[in-house]
Amino acid sequence: MQITPLIPESAPFTAEQRAWLNGFLAGVLQRGGGTNGASAPAEAKKPLLIAFGSQSGNAESLAKRLAREATSRGFAARAAGLDSLQPADLIKDKNVLLITSTWGEGDMPDNAVSFWDAINQNGSSPKFDGVNYSVLALGDKNYADTFCLAGKKLDQRLAELGATRVVDRVDCDVDFDDLAKEWSKNAFTIFGSTKNQSDQSDPSDAEPAYSKKNPFPAKLIANDTLNAPGSAKDTHHIAFSLTGSGLTYEVGDALGVFVQNCPEVVDAVIAAHGFDPNANVGSKTLREALLTDYEIRSLLGKTPESGLTLDSFLENLRKLQPRLYSIASSIKAHPDEVHLCVGAVRYTTDGIAHKGVASTFLSDRLALGDTTGIYFHAANHFRLPTDLTKPVIMVGPGTGIAPFRAFLEEREATQAPGKNWLFFGDQKRATDFLYHDQIIAWVQSGHLTRLDTAFSRDQEEKIYVQTRMLQAASELWQWLEEGAHFYVCGDAKRMAKDVDDALHKIIETQGNKSADEAAAYVAEMKKTKRYARDVY
Ligand SMILES: Cc1cc2nc3c(=O)[nH]c(=O)nc-3n(C[C@H](O)[C@H](O)[C@H](O)COP(=O)(O)OP(=O)(O)OC[C@H]3O[C@@H](n4cnc5c(N)ncnc54)[C@H](O)[C@@H]3O)c2cc1C
Ligand SMILES: Cc1cc2nc3c(=O)[nH]c(=O)nc-3n(C[C@H](O)[C@H](O)[C@H](O)COP(=O)(O)O)c2cc1C
Description:
By secondary structure, the protein is of the alpha/beta class. The chain has three domains: 42-199, Flavodoxin domain (Rossmann fold), CATH 3.40.50; 216-377, Elongation Factor Tu (Ef-tu), domain 3; 392-535, Rossmann fold (3-Layer(aba) Sandwich). The protein has 17 helices and 21 strands. The protein has helices at residues 15-33, 58-72, 87-93, 113-119, 149-160, 177-190, 263-273, 286-292, 310-315, 357-365, 402-413, 429-432, 436-445, 465-471, 473-481, 495-510, 515-527, and strands at 46-53, 75-81, 95-100, 132-138, 164-165, 170-172, 216-225, 235-241, 254-257, 280-281, 284-285, 323-326, 337-343, 346-349, 352-355, 371-377, 392-395, 420-426, 450-455, 485-490, 531-535. Strands 1, 2, 3, 4, 5 and 6 form a six-stranded parallel sheet that branches. The chain has a six-stranded antiparallel sheet with strand order 12-9-16-7-8-13, with helices on one face. Strands 19-18-17-20-21 form a five-stranded parallel sheet, sandwiched between helices. α14 packs parallel to α16 and α16 crosses α17. The longest helix has 19 residues, at 15-33. The chain starts with 14 loop residues before the first helix and ends with a strand. Bound molecules: flavin-adenine dinucleotide (FAD) and flavin mononucleotide. Flavin-adenine dinucleotide binds next to β12, β13, β14 and α10.
């Protein structure tokens, strides 16, 4: 039987999408869903798998929100982390939307690693013939060379393995909401949504009172230097009041903070370009707009383009983004407060002194009693065990201590009987032992079962947290075998990798395993959420 194409040539689809959609609609009509008015048997709901690879929660929240929307559009939709999926699940569900971020330097997020490894082997990779899919890649254009690389790789590999890309991949910069909406709208249409978007109103999508779009103006109530005089570091304990907000959070979550550029930097940039600081930019002056709305860090030390108009100058600037900080407190220990541990970023390149926008805004420029916009960023991948008897091992050098101060406060408040082991490190014990008194009090009370510190500059040879892990290999292995959850927070570039290598080595040597067996043990820990990382 000849199928009459139902989708007009002028419809906004590619030829591939149009062909697929025509085939799909023809199938529906042949099964009795035609337009002759006869009552057709109820169609089974179409499965739609929304898989996510997510490190800090953006892709996960989006996938869950889109799964709710897809359900209300008539799909049998589910959101699932890539760590909980096998290639066979895609073959079974057939219709797949995949949302993934990129981490490290072009790496897969932790929960996508095992899935990627499973589909990226030569020879034994599964075939995805019959699977229809589309990828939404989350990323950050500041990572120019690796922008959305994880999404690009997954998209390419699925196609290589025979899956049909029914909607082109969309690559998103940090503000991904609008592109994600457009992409999901196209995808739902292509996959055969049975209801219009305007029909939908998902009560669980209702914006909370305060969010990234409507941040709470929180008052700064503490800013204490955590390093002693003489330290090469400048780390601050920052506390905001949540009074009047009705907001709460869970340990493991991060706080989004809206920040301002340094006024001196703003003035220098305006002067270098010869602009009028009082020129109108929307409802603000240029000076006000450069303080709050634009990323200007990269302009320092650059020779301004001659004859540049104010409009084209602003067009080339990126929006100033809020920054995320791991929450360093439990709300059970500090009602109506949220604490952070912030390392002030200061460095010199080519003789020019630079300072991090957000970290120095919080450390140097926001006065006690002043307010700035905040919102909570859920980190469902970074949670304490629900079983309070389980032991936890926490590796958090430098500002990586933040979520572990929160974990320990929480475990104290809930009287969790499980054992707690902390690895902390920094440059020098005398000046850089962050939260020293509180940590030592926990050792003395027995709340902290074991503390291992690594101060790299207190002796000739460099000692790091991973050195201490290897020295304690036998006991660490014993804790793992007792079901301990293993957490890492802090520097993503070196520390997290070195700690991961040490973990593999310990499992290999203490558990008498081959490298592959140790890797499988670690993969299983990740899958069962016993190995979680909050690294940046
Ligand atoms: C989930 C998450 C949790 C986080 N938790 C914490 C936390 O608990 N505590 C904390 O302090 N930070 C934390 N961060 C990092 C934090 O969000 C900011 O990235 C950090 O404070 C720097 O921001 P900034 O605006 O001060 O610096 P920016 O103005 O953004 O400048 C940073 C940039 O400066 C450049 N740079 C920095 N140092 C050098 C150097 N030595 N040489 C050359 N270039 C350099 C790099 O390009 C770097 O990207 C977290 C990040 C994430 C994503
Ligand atoms: C430490 C770190 C490394 C990152 N590396 C990349 C990268 O290489 N390429 C990219 O496009 N985005 C990169 N990003 C940006 C994230 O992909 C982006 O913030 C994304 O929205 C995070 O989504 P998630 O919360 O689901 O993990 C990085 C972000 C951080 C904090």
